[in-house]
Task: structure prediction
Amino acid sequence: MNLTQILVFAAMVALLYPKGPNGKPSRGLACTWDRIRIRVVQGRGWVILVASTLALYWLQSSSPIRSLDFWLPTASLALTTLVWVVIYTPDRAAWRTAVPTIAVIIGVVALIASTRYFDPLCCITATRPPDIFTVTVGILIVAVISAGAAILFRGRARRLNWIVLGLIVLFVVLKLDIATQAFSAILRGLNGQDTAQAAVSDVRWLGFSYIAFRLIAALRDRVTARPAAPGKPVPTGLSLREFISYVIFFPALTAGPIDRADRWIKDYRNFVQTHQPAPATTPRPFGMDDVVAGAGRILLGVFKKFVIADMLAIIALNSINAAQVTAPGVHGSASFWGLGDGGLNQAIWTWVLVYAYAWRILFDFSGYTDIAIGLGRMFGIKLPENFDRPYFKPNLTLFWNSWHMSLSQWFRAYYFNPITRALRSAKETPFLPEQGFFRQSTFIILFGQVTTMLLIGLWHGITWNFIAWSVWHAVGLFAHNRWTDYQRRRNASDDPESTEQNELPLRRRLATTLSVLATFHFVALGWIWFALPSVSLSIQVFGRLVGIGG
Amino acid sequence: MTTEIRSALAQYIAKEILQQPKRVIAPTTPLISSGLIDSFHLVDLGLYVEDTFGVHLDDTELNRDTFDTIEQLTALIVERQGG
Result:
């Protein structure tokens, strides 16, 4: 989202609140305006759906492949609809309630496509959308596939794993350069464009990651769902309108946070005032204070992202800045950085780049999350927090509990927990002892941590530098885990309460400060793998930090 | 009933997870958000709760939003047992 887009989204909120800040209805012209707004409040759910659908197309960047900026958002909508159909296998009544949603979605898509013919208004998409005939064929294909899937998956929850697998394959296609390029070539071929020009940058599917995370969660929840206990009501599923709004909710579309459907839907139903009477957990109706709080959060986010992070970006680690520190002579003078010549100069500036990158990535991402949370709050949804002062944690485990929390939560819920549970419940492996350093649980911990971190790393891109970053953190987490275990075993016979009390407060504070600094540096150095495109360049930068290499 | 569950959980956590049998864990001590229990031992705790109290905990429920203290976990167990 850029500043204009954020402003437009925030301004849309004016539509949703029927009364002025003093709570009194106005007169005259303003009265007519108020009436319109009251109507809109009654349709808040539709506002969220239509706004999110429009945002899906508006935020999608252009591509040299013709009409791809129209088809990728359409594919997001199609995938979401398809997953809803296979999860809820709707009966006749559910289909009936879904009809208005389908009509509205098709209407919005048709409207977006038709801007092709209204030149001054063209277009909400980055380039001209395809003609209406092609769009109609596209919609018909989606309808046929959805209907087929509804029949194929009825009552067969385990088959949904195939769709999860399909989404993972799509992830690989979009994250592995060689596969993305091949995909681009196929799309170009279908479009009658030059396949030799296929490039990785052709396919930038906006929001795919976060849409897929939500879809996989919904599918896996369905597969692992347990039958309701006897006498307990079966929880009602989400309507099509609710499900699509949840998956493509525009504040959280591009970079999360990833909310859980069951939590999100409580806020949503409260806000759109469906399902009367309101659930017992409803704290209070949404009002102007939410708008004010949301706006404040957006301003904070804008400041963090567009002021602090963008300023830090100038001196943050990237291949260009790294090259400038390496070769001072290139820019005409050996003292380009103003600190004289030599290895010390280079080391100092390399440290500056690393520190600046660490803070830039935090301010950039947490600022973006602030904007998302602020916008969400204006639209009645309290999205989960994603950051909790991650650079002030005394160990790496706590860092990962406070950095991009909704993502690590997701990986725990859908990968780490099931795999660890399965390994722990499995029969004892004969070749590993029960006790000692090489005991079975140690290997399960190592396996769980390494594979989870690898998945998180590979999600950023299937390249060696992200693998190196994953391994860096996995090794750090494992080392911390073993260290804690060792400490606990060593002190097992002591009474921990008395030991802690006996420690001098000053010494404890000093120990905490040192731990925080050590953890921060471990993470900051880890970003070197993350920020630079190649492992060899990262190793070079590591060398320079300690004055080795050129 | 609640007291028994609480003391069983506190004992299990002190002995099996923290390896400090003498340690007394208050019902309101944050377990997950404080880092006292890591993600691996959280799965073990989940398995222990399932085996001992006969209630099911989903993989998606093993997090601090569902429970962060012995008190909250006990409430969850009692609620599920009652159902």
Summary: Confidence is low (pLDDT under 50) at residues 275-283, 327-340 of chain A.
